[in-house]
Amino acid sequence: MIPQWTLLLATAAVEEVAEKGKLFDFDATLPLMAIQFVVLVAVLNKLFYTPLGKVLDDRDEYIRGGLGNAKARLAEAEALKTQYEKELAETRRESNTVIATAKAEAQKIAAGQIAETQQAAQVQREQAQQEIDKQKQSAFTALEPQVEALSRQILTKLLGAELVK
Fold it and tell me: How many domains does the chain have?
């Protein structure tokens, strides 16, 4: 067992320590600590929190201005996009009209040239036929005396010269 005298010493030591280490001492150090705390808060506010708050406010204002500017530019870009899409659609319509007109004119020109070519071919065919007919007629005319002479010779050989006159 523990001797009794050690317990007495321990309780005395605990009482002495408890007296010295109180949680709050309400003597002259409490107002001094309060003044130090208030001065520290004032210094921190003046040197740290005020400039930091100003920087944060400036940054917030810059971001809000950037967002507003971005929204305005986005709206402007959308308006330009819409305008360009309308102009593109109009240009496509006009180009389709021009292409259709050009195709129609090309078909008319092609049809006219085909008709002219057919007429020219018909004229050349008729001229060639007339030339062939003329050559045929002249060939018949040139061959007629020869045919006549050959016919006489054949008749003369077959029938004799006395019967053919």
Answer: 1
- DSSP-derived letter for residue 25 is -
- In this structure, is residue 86 part of a structural domain? yes
Q: What's residue 143's pLDDT?
A: 83
Question: Structural domain of residue 134, as residue ranges?
Answer: 28-159
pLDDT along the chain (165 residues), means of 10: 63 60 64 89 89 90 90 92 94 94 93 92 93 89 85 81 66
The CB density around residue 155, as the number of other CB atoms within 10 Å, is 14
At 130, the amino acid letter reads: Q
H/E stretch holding 20: helix 4-20
Q: What is the pLDDT of residues 38-66, one digit of tens each?
A: 999 999 888 888 888 899 999 999 999 88
In a domain, 139, yes or no: yes
Is there a domain that residue 5 lies in? no
In a domain, 89, yes or no: yes
Say which amino acid occupies 88.
L
Helix or strand holding residue 154 (H, E): helix 50-159
Q: Is 69 helix (H, G, I), strand (E, B) or coil?
A: helix
**30 near 37, Cβ under 8 Å?**
no
